[in-house]
Fold:
Amino acid sequence: MSFQKAKTNDPAAVLAALSALLGDRLTVSLPIREAHCRDESWHPNVTPDAVAFAETTEEVAEIVKICGAHVFPVIAFGTGTSLEGHISAPHGGLSLDLSRMNRVLKVNAEDLDVHVEAGVTRKALNVHLRDAGLFFPIDPGADASLGGMAATRASGTNAVRYGTMRENVLNITAVMADGSVVRTARRARKSAAGYDLTRLLVGSEGTLGVITELTLRLYGIPEAISSGVVSFAKFENAIDAVIETIQAGLPMARIEFLDEVQVAACNRYSKLELPETPLLLVEFHGTEASVAEQATRFGEITTAHGGGDFNWATKAEDRTKLWEARHNALYASLALAPGKQGLITDVCVPISRLAEAIKGTKDDLAASNIVAPMVGHVGDGNFHLIMLVDPANAAEVAEAQAIHDRMVMRVLSLDGTCTGEHGIGEGKMKFLEAEHGEGVAVMRAIKQALDPHNILNPGKIFSL
Amino acid sequence: MSFQKAKTNDPAAVLAALSALLGDRLTVSLPIREAHCRDESWHPNVTPDAVAFAETTEEVAEIVKICGAHVFPVIAFGTGTSLEGHISAPHGGLSLDLSRMNRVLKVNAEDLDVHVEAGVTRKALNVHLRDAGLFFPIDPGADASLGGMAATRASGTNAVRYGTMRENVLNITAVMADGSVVRTARRARKSAAGYDLTRLLVGSEGTLGVITELTLRLYGIPEAISSGVVSFAKFENAIDAVIETIQAGLPMARIEFLDEVQVAACNRYSKLELPETPLLLVEFHGTEASVAEQATRFGEITTAHGGGDFNWATKAEDRTKLWEARHNALYASLALAPGKQGLITDVCVPISRLAEAIKGTKDDLAASNIVAPMVGHVGDGNFHLIMLVDPANAAEVAEAQAIHDRMVMRVLSLDGTCTGEHGIGEGKMKFLEAEHGEGVAVMRAIKQALDPHNILNPGKIFSL
Structure:
């Protein structure tokens, strides 16, 4: 099955119609268009023909109808922090910027949920919630928009405890390719009423519908939080400690792995003095008593696996400093080699295969000259690699890409996935078939059924 | 969009082809056919033309290909414990019995997952896992097959802590309508690689694919478990206590509501001596210390809401007796009025609307002569009603159906769902549009794309 190529029959007409609807909220300014196709990845990008700033779901529906009538691509845009070329416009079209849809519509404190517009960012939401004693845990590092996080099935450091966007979106309001507005579910915690359209849209990367609003699960801010760091001589010991921790059912809120290269980068960038060996950075949430109990048990496990002393960040500001350093790991890595580009990727395996997956990549890197910090949400079996390469050095780029491809294929051979949380976008398209086999035909059939003219983010997930 | 009506052009030919493949594992015996369309619901059922007993995924694929070639309906069958007429054969066809696919294929203890065939029942799995110190928590009451539980997006008493089948299926192997075999995902805990086919099949009620194998998440058997019962004078107080418990973030493993009618039924059926007023039946999982802490806090909350003394089931056998009584609630209810039938239904609302939803239904019941025990997984906002009616009394049946329909529409007006865990089947089809609006067109488009001849469980979820 192949898609009809998205093809505009009359670009001037579609821009005129959009302009009539949006006035100066439609722009063809080159700097604005360029800013709307640049994400944080290493993938080349193509500028869209125009950028629209939408303000309501109804307006998004009108925009999609106009673009649909002209077979003009529509690429939803949140904050531009995705990592696999999701917002590039390889077939031209409209970048549909949702950042002005940034209202928190309703906090339902009794039900622990919130209804937001898609352009609200996760940090803005948490600022809004703080006085109510609530928070939204999903934390991909960047201050991404919640619509974009749903579209890419984002997760991050807290997923080991709270799940990913998959588990934390109660319903989505989306504009489909035909301009119809669908609310995927009610606000009930669970439902067995029909196909799970919520989970179909979560992770669909703007190819099945434009997410305009969503209802998210919330959690009470824990009574007690404590964070700490423990170092290991060898990464294998750290991973063994993680496996035993997960098996013991310790309800870790976060359990992050940094390799020695990443630790050195963070020390330099964030002015820390951590031992430059592999480490685990962890956080516990609970009551005072349960957090203390978890920490004790975790300490026993790490000690049994050769971990060093546990360094606690008991004060809130020390904790913040540590997690800010973790969140800035990407920027710290890039700062290791100014002028170089970061070839960033993420994969995820069953945790029993994690050491094997990491070792294979580390051996590959050791045989090259490429500097590549590694960091992972290891409680989920998910890890990231940032290979620093000189874009002008074709041999280095080719070597990094070969290491990348071997890393992904190794992970697939270990029953893992080519991406744990960054998505397919343009960057991982070539692995979709290797991962899903016959499943790709099912995905294509769904795309064809819901977007027959392929106007929604064409050229992502699947090639045309 | 309307479906092509499933229509066999040559029943003798399809049965001959199936017989050639299966030998005596294809039967047209009337008692066997009748046993394969009877579920535990009040809906009338239609017998299939034949029953096939499949033993492997490959065999299921061959069966579906043969049926597809003849446009002969295929209705997957696990244990026959569903509750909305899922296994009836309104258009004839083949009941595809998967109960002989009952092998536990692989326990991955380090990864806390297990790969099973679809016919393994939840109790059989837990027996298999016990020595490994692991368990699978999803517990719909009946000893259903895991394939059937996935197909209906089952949940039950533990969902408040461990989630539903939606959260606990890592991947599915399914035979699609064209006979292709799809494995929906790898064994990694999370993935952002393409559309979420796992969640699309979970809850699809056999209409998109026949689930033949699945990988499920497991959990360590808790170090400490304690259960208890607390009674309230009024159901509203019990519900307020639940809301405060959930808001406080207490990690309840189970929190069940039984109304006074249900308590009386359980007392009689299971030989208990509980006060015949509304009650909460709860369970805590954790370490000894954390379970004690949770119980103390829960006791404070219930006392503040007028709850009576907390009765603990500290001994394992007392705990088992209590939960067996809960699991037998349906049979206890039916035993209240021998000869009557149970009109069983389930709905789910945001918990802030739970008291309102329950009160509306209780007022309706009070104005009738219908006896109707009520029981709920109230931590999720989910509750069930069993109206006892005499099938020969048309007026009583009509009154019960009117109460049922008002209950569902009331729940929809409270942003709830027409079914929390039983599914749509035949019984809730008329509410699908009211709940999902434009979303139904999306569901139909997916069904049409993946099963264009409508051979997979036709006449369920959607009418033809």
Observations:
- Chain A touches chain B through 92 residues (CB under 8 Å).
